[in-house]
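>> received
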Amino acid sequence: MPTNFATFPPAATPTERRVYTLLLDDENRLMLCGSCCGGWTVPQFPVDPDVDFRAAATQFLSARLRINNPQYGRVLGIHKTSVKDCWERDRPTVSQVFILRISAQHSASFLAVSPSHVRWGARDLAQHRRMISPEGVVLLALGYVEGWLPDGPISLY
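>> returned
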């Protein structure tokens, strides 16, 4: 049986796209999901290939967390993995990490969504940083809160 070399090797592995939201309240506490999201992580979700990251984040925040007109921070985390560097998923991932300021009311509402949700300040984040995914999100949040990150996109590699 002849081999069709036009389809071998297989097509490139599809790239996954994700949004991570770093929700910081008025006391600079980061909102984290516990067991409902498979471990300690910031709220996250996949994004379809033809959808703008910020538009997807805005829609998610409105629909799931009832946050309308989100106040995005001026720092944006960008993460890209290659096939050989995929440590969290089985395929390359392009992610954008949005930092948002939320009110005390939204912070309390976030906690009410699930008993596994928490809000941790800098001390707790530093103490548990190795338990929080994705890797580097704690450093990004602390750099933003402490003011030593410049405005604009920050590469998270």
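>> The helical segments are 53-65, 104-113, 122-128, 137-146.
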